[in-house]
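Annex B. Sample input.
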Amino acid sequence: MSVAPKLLQRIDAHHSDVTSIDFFGNSLLVTGSSDKTVRLFKWISGSGFEEDKSSPFLGHKYAVTKVEFSPKGYVVASSSVDGTVIFWDANTGERVDIIHQPNGEAIRNMQFCPDGSLIATTDDTGVICIFGQEKKLMKSIKGIHEESVPTLTFSKDSKIMLTGCTLGNVRLFFTDFDAEQIEPDLLIDNGHDMGILDADFCKTTRFDPLHLSTKIYTLATSGNDNLIKIWRIYTIIEDTRPSRRNSTTSDSPKLYSRLVPTTMHQHFSGTATIYPTTYMNAECVNSFTAHGSSVTSVKFNATGTLLVSGSLDRLIKIWDMQGNCLKTLDEHARYVNCVAINADSTILASGSNDKQVHIWDLTGSFTLDSHISNGLRSLLMTLQLSDQDVPMDFVCPITSEIMTDPVILEDGFSYERQAILTWFSKDKRTSPMTNMELTTTEVMTNEKLKMEIESFLKKLDMDPFE
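Annex B, continued. Sample output.
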């Protein structure tokens, strides 16, 4: 995918560091700042993003650490060093609810589960709190982290929650939080040296073609070691996994997966030590130096085709999934704290210690007079936005695009021919999906899959080779 970003707009609404930023859809933007305010912006053709008349939202006593729209966009939530999460009506700016972190600890991160079933918070003492739909505290999970937890995210299907601390340790949990005692379902120690700062799950997930009980997630993490890491998270799917309450009983099903161990054991992936369980495992499939300083933020676009990062080196970078830097954006005068991408990957927003929010056009063709629609869309994104159910078997794991010339490897997965040949040209003899060593780099045309893709696209009246 070609990317030709240009700076569209500078927003100077805040009086201190911009700490967090989030989109709802394509044209609604919310920002949070150390100046204690939350501000809401709407795209107006002819002007760009303009602050809504209901903004700013005032109520926090100290710096805002995170802002986020609820899954349906009706509510904006903001967390703060003051130990609260305030929920605001996105239409009126009125405060509709508030929750408090136990003992009034500073909240470092806050996030809605994508299905709207719960909201989670983390703090400086390592406590993770889970609140239900009625904003009631369901669980206060302690003893999992020993230090501050700045990183919190959910998989896009709402099945997994991830937390990361300033020691660099990552913990992943299935989101069935009904058990009396909650323990991590996967532990990664030293995921990033000197601490993990951000993480994001790719929306695209897959099933292992050799063992369909195994679901595979793609995850990006960033940290104080200047690195971005790409991980595969392998899980036994919910339908075949015992609940936490009876997972140790003798009548639990005996599950087999080549990617998930039958017994817990320790293994290494780069500098990280991974402690899998019988239902979840991980491998780091790519690790690269992304910036000249700490990587504060990392975000996938909607289809996982692009990855965007921000850093204390004042730069924003746009990456492909092989770790190639496609563009470097250098308009901020100070640290970049946060980045966000709108729903159809047309607009990138960034927030910085220079007090500014920058709005970037990722298409190279927008102006402030434009209507935000029909921009940088791949074939896959076009189909998804039109509610077409695209089989994931049709999508290359490397390019995150619908394949035109699929080939199959001994790992059982199919890839776009040129993408996997490029992978091998870099002296890699491992599977891009499983990180397992391959005995051969021979590729075979997947004629059956190619015909299925062609048939699928022709039914939609689309040229499969366009």
